[in-house]
Amino acid sequence: MNQQDRWNIVFCRQRGMTFRAIQREYGYSQSTISLWWRRFCETGGVDDAPRSGRPFKLTEEERKAVERSLKRKATGSLAKTAKYMKLEHGVTICDSTVANTAKRMGLVYRLRKTKPLLSEEDKLSRLRFANVRRPGGFWSRVMWSDEASFALFSTTRGEWVTAGNEASPHETVKWPPRIRVWAAISSKGKTKLHRIPKKMNAEGFEKLL
What we know:
Blueprint: H1 3-14, H2 19-26, H3 30-43, H4 60-70, H5 78-89, H6 95-104, H7 120-133, E1 143-151, E2 178-186, E3 189-190, E4 194-196, H8 202-208
Antiparallel strand pairs: 1-2, 2-3, 2-4
Helix pairs in contact: 1-3, 4-5, 5-6
């Protein structure tokens, strides 16, 4: 069981879900669910028991890369961060190493609160606010940019099925093909979609801009 699922079990129990309900949600046995809930109650965490051997050490640059990956709203999970470090930095680490690194850097996992989608009235109100608070021509000098990562074989963990039936399997690969892209928008329009290489330093990013 990966570190993310252990924390999911803890959060489900804290919300009052029974072991049986959690078993239906994640597929683990009730004894396994009980084990990690008990571990959390006793230690305040869900780490594996201490093992012998020299711990894996990340460099300062690699720790910052782990932090950036975890803070991404769409992809910031332990398992995806471990895969990201393997693909982008050539560093092989497990979920627990990512969790321990996050803990040392002062990061904690929190469930995101929901909020309603902006209505058309809300959008117009924000546009009026932006026009009033900024001088004429200000927004014509502003550009917004961002990057995104896309991988094949990406799908949800489960699906809704009729009681008594099993969810259909889906194909997976250990290291799915992945591509990173960058683009920007401004009052003049949008840029082309640019492919980002696996490794890019500050000089390469300046060239991209």
